[in-house]
TrEMBL record:
Pfam families for the chain: DUF4953, DUF5117, DUF5118
EcxA zinc-binding domain segment(s): 498-820
Assigned keywords, A-Z: Hydrolase, Metalloprotease, Protease, Signal
Protein name, entry field: Zinc-dependent metalloprotease
Organism, scientific name: Roseateles oligotrophus
Signal peptide as annotated in the record: 1-31
Compositional bias segments (type: Low complexity): 51-61
Gene3D superfamilies: Collagenase (Catalytic Domain) (3.40.390.10)
Disordered: annotated span: 51-70
DUF5117 domain sequence ranges: 126-324
Amino acid sequence: MTSYESLRGSPRLTLSAVAAAVVLLSACATTAPDAAAPVVKAASAAAPASSASAPNGAAKPPADPTAPKPFAEVSKDAKVQAGLFPIWRKDEKVWLEISKDMIGKPFLFTVNIANSIGERGLYASQMAADQLVEWRRIGNQIQLVALNTAFRGEGGGKLAVSQAFSPSLLAAGPVGSAEHPERKSVLVDAGMFLTDIPGLSTRLEAAYRLPYAPDRSNSSFEAARADAKLSTLTARMHFFTPRIPAPPLVAPPAPTPTPPQSTPDPRSMFFSFVYNFQALPDLPMAVRKLDPRLGHFGESYSDFGSDSKANVRVHMVKRWRLEKQDASAELSEPIKPITYWLDKNIPPQYRASVEAGILEWNKAFEKIGFKNAIHAKQQPDDADWDNMDSSHASIRWFVGADVGFAIGPNHGDPRTGEILDADIGMSDVFARGSRRFVTDDLGNSAVSALSTSGLALDRHKHRHGAADYCSYANEASAEMGFALDLLEGRGDITPDSPEADAFVQAVIKDVITHEVGHTLGLKHNFKASTSVSQKQLQDKAYTEKFGISNSVMDYNAYNLSLKGEPQGSYTNNTLGAYDYWAIEYAYKPLAAETEVADLAKIAARSTEPQLAYADDIDAGVGGPYDGFDPDANRFDLGDDPLAYFKRRLALSQELWARVQDRKPVVGGDPLRDRRSIVESFRQLARSAELTGKYVGGMHALRDLPGSTGRPAFSAVEPARQREALKFISTGLLSANSFRFRPEFLASQTLDYNEWERVQLSIPAAVGAVQTTVLDRLMSANTARRLIDMPAFVAEKERKGLVSLSEVYSTLNAAVWSELKTGAEIDGMRRNLQREHLKRLQGVLTRGGGPGLLADAYAMVRFHAVQLQSDLRAASGKAGLSIETRAHLAESLDTLSSVLKANMQRS
C-alpha cells in the first residue's frame, strides 16, 4: 500500500504551534453550544467574574476578536446535507464541514464542466481535471492542496522526494467556525471555490485572445449533494471582460479570432463547474503493469525510491475494479458492475443504439469469466440529479454551434490506476451535425484548430494527455456524409428510408462502443484495420460476423466497394480480436503468485496479425511525430492501405459524376451539392497525407527486446514507395483527376440567408489536397528518413533503395510536366507550381526549418538549379498563351532570385 505522507510538500506545524492552537480551540469549544441544542444567551461581559472563573481575583482575559465564532452560531438556521464533507446552506452562504480526522487525509478532487458556451472547444458535459488532494490547516487558514503524485519514493527516500517536488495550492480560505464540541469539525466557507480553479480564463484567452476573468460577485452555487463517499458542489461561474477592443485599422499579419459568437453579449458568459470531493477506496486496488505491446491508458510516475533502476518511470494500467461474486465460478456476476447512465438529453430515437454500443463490451468480459460486467441505465427524464457528479459514469449528449466530436475521458485513483468515474461526451453530430460544418474549407477548420489549442492546456492539467481527445465522431460523420451521398447516388439507399436510418444507427453504435472502450482504459489502435483482406471486406457473411476491422478502437472508414464489386457490411458492428485481447490483459482475474508470468503470456500473442497495434503517436500527431509507418493510419481499411487510397480517389470521382448528373429539387437545400463535393475532398486530403507516408516510410513493430528476433524497424519496400510516388504523380497531382463541368459549377447557388457567401472553388479544394502531398514529400522528416534509410538495410540490398534525389526529381517532373511537353499550363496547374516554388523558397532561404540535414538542403538546391534551366528553356517556346508565358517568366524570376539569395542561418 502506497504511503502518501511523502507527497505532502509543506512542513507540518511545530509542536508549540499545534499546542497553542489546541488550547485556543479547546477554549472556544467549551463555550460553543451544540448545533442541535437551544442557544443560551451569553452572560454580560460587564458581569463580575466568579471566583471559579477568575481564581485569586484576577480579571478574565478579553475574548480574541479574530477567533472563529462558535459552530452553532455560524450554522444557525442553516440546512445540512450529511456526507463525506457535510454541506451546510443558509440563504446564499454555503459551508463545507471538515472533521479533524480528514485534515491531511488524501482524497480525489475532480472538476467537470456541466454548462458552457457551445463553441471553439468550450462545450458542455466535459470532464476536466482530477487530482489527489488533501486539506491542510495553517492556523485559522484552510488550504486545499494538490499532492504531487508524479514523483514518488516507493522503496525509500520519501523525505528527499517531498523536498524536491512541490505540491500546488488549489484553493484557500479562513476557518469559518470554531470546532464542533462533539464532532471536532469546523465549517469552511465554500466561497473559495467561486474562483477559476479549472483555469478556464486561459482557455478563453486561447480561443478569443481576450482577457476574461471570473466575477465572484455574480457567481453562486446552484446545486449541492452529499453522501458517505462523495460531496459535490456545482458553481455557476460568471466570466467577463470589461470591453471588446475595436478591430485594427490595418489587418494584422496573422488573423485574429473574432469575439464569442454564441453569447448575446460577447463580454459576458456563464459556466457551471461541478466540483467533486470523493473518498478514495479504503483498500487500494491491486496494480497491473502496462505492456507497450497493447494499448492501455496508464497512470505513470517517477519512482526515486531506489537508485539501482536505470529507468525510474513506472506505468500502471488504468482500469475499473472488477471482482467476481464467486471467485471459483467459471462465469460469475461481478461484485460491482461497471454502470453507465444514459443522459436524459439523448434523443429517444438513439437510445437503443447507444445502449447497444455500451453493452457490446460484455462479449469481451464474458470471455474472461464475467457475466453482465457492463450495465446501461437510462436517467429518468424527470431526474433532478446531474450525472456529472463522480458517482455516475455516463453518456452525455450535448450540442454546440461548431461541435462535432465525442470524447471518452475518465477519472481515477492515482495510487493504483483504478478508474472511479467516466463521462463520455457525445455531440449531436449524427443528427443535424452530420450535415453541418463551420466552414467548407479543407485546411484546419476553426473547430479543429481551437480544439488543439485547448488540448495543450488539457495536457498540462490531465495526466492522460492528448489521448483523451477523440475526433472519431466528427471524422466519422464527415465520412458518413460522403458514404450516404454515394450510396444514394447508386440507388442503394434513399434519403429518410429505413435503410438510411439503420445506417445512422449503426454508426452511432460504433462510435459509442469506441468511446466506451476509452473509458474502460483502451487507447486508439490505428493498425487494427490492416489485418483484414479486401476479399474479406467484400464478404457480407464475414463482415457481419467479425466486422470490418479487428478493433473498434481504430478510426474505421466505411466499407464502400467500387461499383460492380461485392459489398460487405458498410460499418463496423462488433468487437474485434484486438478488443478481446486488450480486455483480457487489463481485467482477467489472475492469481497474485502467477500474475507476472500470466500477463507475459497474454502479451506475447502480439505477434499474431490480428493483434497488430499502433497508437496516436505512431499514426502521427504532427511536428517531429509525423507518423512514418504506412500501416498505422486513421481511416484506412484493408491490408493494403495504398490500394484503399487509390480506391478513395475512384470513389470520389464516381460521386462527382453522380452529383453533376443529379437534378436540382424545388425547395431543396441550396448547399447540398456543395457539401457532397467538400466531403469528398476531405477524404482525399487525408488520403494524400497517408499516401505520402510510404515515401521514406518504415514499418514498426512493438516487440520487446529478445522476444521474437524480428527487427523493430524495416524500410518500406522500394517497389511500394515507387508505387506511392506514381499514384501521387499521375493521380493526386494531375489536373485531369479533378475535372468538373462548367455548367455544374455555374449552377451552384448560395445560402442567401447566411452572412458567409463564398462560391465553391474547385481549384482551392484541389490545392488543399495537393499542398498536403507537397508538405509531406518536402518535409525535413521525410528527407531525414530517406537519407538515413541505407543504415537500416543490408549492404547488398541498398542498390534499389529510393533516394532523396529520386523523390525530388519525381516531384519536379510531376509538378512541372508542361516544361517538357510544351503544353499550356492551366490555372489549377499554375497554382500547384506556385506552391512548389514557395516550398523551394522556404528551404533555400530559411534552411527548411529545424531538422533539415545539410545533404537534404544540397539536394533541394541541386534540383532547383535543374528546374531553373528547364524554366529558361520553356520560356523561349513560341505559341504559348499570354497567361502561360507570364507564369513561366514570373516563376523563373522568383526561382533565380531565390538561388541568388543568401540563406538566413541561425
